[in-house]
Every structure is written in C-alpha cells, then in structure tokens.
C-alpha cells in the first residue's frame, strides 16, 4: 500500500468566487509544488474545467478527480465525482437541465470563464453558477450514483451551505460515500457535537478558491494506486485501504 496526499475540493477561475489566478496551468503547478498526489476539481455547478486539468495534471504525475460542487435546492453543497469523461459529460447535461439560467452580475459575483492551456478565454458562462439546482439533495445523490459516481456532502461543519446547517441533520437514508469537513475544524471536534455521525468516513479538503490555499489541508489515502476504484475502496475502508486526515 502507498499513501497518497489528496485535496479533493478545488475551485478554478470558472467559479465566480474563484480567483483569477486559479487557471488550470497555475493549479497544476502549485499542486505539484505542494506535494498533492490527487486533486479534486469541483467548480460550482459546472464540470467544464475538469478534463483540461486532468490532462495537464497527468503530465505531472497528479491524478485528478473530475467533478463539481453542486448546490441542491435546500442550498446544500455536495461534492460529486465521476470516473470517465463520458459520465462527467452526462452529469454536465443534468446540471445544464436543472440549474436556473439567472443572469450573472459580473460586478457583484465576478466573471465565470473557461480558459485553455494558454490561459486564453474560450467561453464565458453568462448565467450564475452559484444558484441552486431545482433538485433536492436526495435527487442529486440518486443521479450521481446512477452514474456510478461518488457523492460527498461538503464542509458539513460550516454554518451555511452544509447539510447540517440547512437540514439540521444528515438524513439517515441519504447514501453518502463520505463526509467532508473544512480546514477550520478537526474530526474529533466535529464529532464531539455530532456523535451520531461517528461511523461515517471523513475527508478534509482545502476548498481552495485562491492559489495559495491549494494543499493547505489534505486527506491521506492509503491504497495500492491512485485510481477512482481504489479511492472508492479507501472510502469504504476495504482490504486494508483507509483514509487519514492530516489535521487530526
């Protein structure tokens, strides 16, 4: 078994809250410098930068988990990951169908752009990506798992946009693959207030919106190799694979 350092929650310049320095080239460069082995690309309600960053990162020996941070109609943020570009594309179609097309106010929210390897803008999304889908968290979870993806409620310790802040609890019938806590707490501190969640697997991520945040906190995944199937097994704790949080 090997230990892989994974930061599974990173935004790019496509997210309206993502800094302009968060271009695919810059993200991969900083991830390499900071010893990140596995990088999750999770823009708000969009997957459009994931494939390019996967291609760039592979050249540096970094595995990319392609996905998005999706906002449910309850305003809950959830990380959703997919193994192949085909499945990712199917999920993008789902996002396009269910995200309201509310015009983005660039003066207030900033620009939402897709760039290429040369950092040239190839597309600008004119509707606001921060809006909530017209789908409930249970519907999003079902869609992700129908595409054999991974579904992880994001930063569940936060006072806004977390499943606990919005619903008051984690629904016991919601099929989650793990729970994410932010860099501002520890697993022990969180569980001291939420003991009923102690049986769930946890990850911890940077939720980087700025280049200097990438890799600030990571999860350490013990597994045979960096692959989607091995990460799934590590989340389940199967056959000696497991997750350890850097900030215990």
From TrEMBL:
Q: Which Pfam families match?
A: PHP
Q: Which PANTHER family match?
A: EXONUCLEASE, POLYMERASE_HISTIDINOL PHOSPHATASE N-TERMINAL DOMAIN-CONTAINING PROTEIN
Please report the stretch or stretches of sequence annotated as the Polymerase/histidinol phosphatase N-terminal domain: 6-74
Q: What is this protein called?
A: Polymerase/histidinol phosphatase N-terminal domain-containing protein
Q: Name one GO molecular function term.
A: 5'-3' RNA exonuclease activity
Q: Which InterPro entries match?
A: PHP_dom (IPR004013), PHP_domain (IPR052018), Pol/His_phosphatase_N (IPR003141), Pol/histidinol_Pase-like (IPR016195)
């Amino acid at each position: 078994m090997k230990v892989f350092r994974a930061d599974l929650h990173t935004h790019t310049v496509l997210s309206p809250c993502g800094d302009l320095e968060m271009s695919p080239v810059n993200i991969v460069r900083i991830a390499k410098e900071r010893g990140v082995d596995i990088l999750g690309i999770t823009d708000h309600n969009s997957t459009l930068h994931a494939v390019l960053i996967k291609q760039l990162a592979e050249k540096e020996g970094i595995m990319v988990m392609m996905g998005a941070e999706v906002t449910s109609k309850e305003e809950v943020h959830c990380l959703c990951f997919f193994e192949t570009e085909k499945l990712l594309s199917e999920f993008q179609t789902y996002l396009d169908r269910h995200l309201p097309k509310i015009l983005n106010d660039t003066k207030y929210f900033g620009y939402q752009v897709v760039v290429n390897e040369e950092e040239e803008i190839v597309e600008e999304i004119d509707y606001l990506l921060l809006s909530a889908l017209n789908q409930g968290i249970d519907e999003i979870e079902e869609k992700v798992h129908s595409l054999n993806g991974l579904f992880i409620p994001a930063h569940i310790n936060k006072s806004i946009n977390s499943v606990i802040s919005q619903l008051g609890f984690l629904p016991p019938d919601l099929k989650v693959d793990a729970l994410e806590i932010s860099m501002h707490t520890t697993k022990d501190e969180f569980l001291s207030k939420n003991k009923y969640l102690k049986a769930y697997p946890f990850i911890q991520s940077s939720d980087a919106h700025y280049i200097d945040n990438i890799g600030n906190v990571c999860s350490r995944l013990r597994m045979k190799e960096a692959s989607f199937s091995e990460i799934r097994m590590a989340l389940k704790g199967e056959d000696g694979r497991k997750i350890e949080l850097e900030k215990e």
